[in-house]
Design a protein that fits this description.
Helices cover 11% and strands 21% of the residues. The protein has one helix spanning 25-32; strands at residues 4-8, 40-45, 50-53.
Length: 70
Amino acid sequence: MKEFLMFDTDRDGYCVDQCGKTMTVGELIELLSQYDEDTEIFYRNDNGYTYGRITEGRIDIHYIEDEDEE
């Protein structure tokens, strides 16, 4: 049997400020370290009606101006 990891996605807000606490890169690395490094990861959307893949080209870094920096 082949093992996959599925990240269930939810819509939590219309901007990141509305989403609440999310994992950090460190927390995600720690979580993923318990799985075999060849385990594939997918996004599961719409209660498993649609799926998405994770590729380097789909990872993007964004910046939000901190109010304290103004």
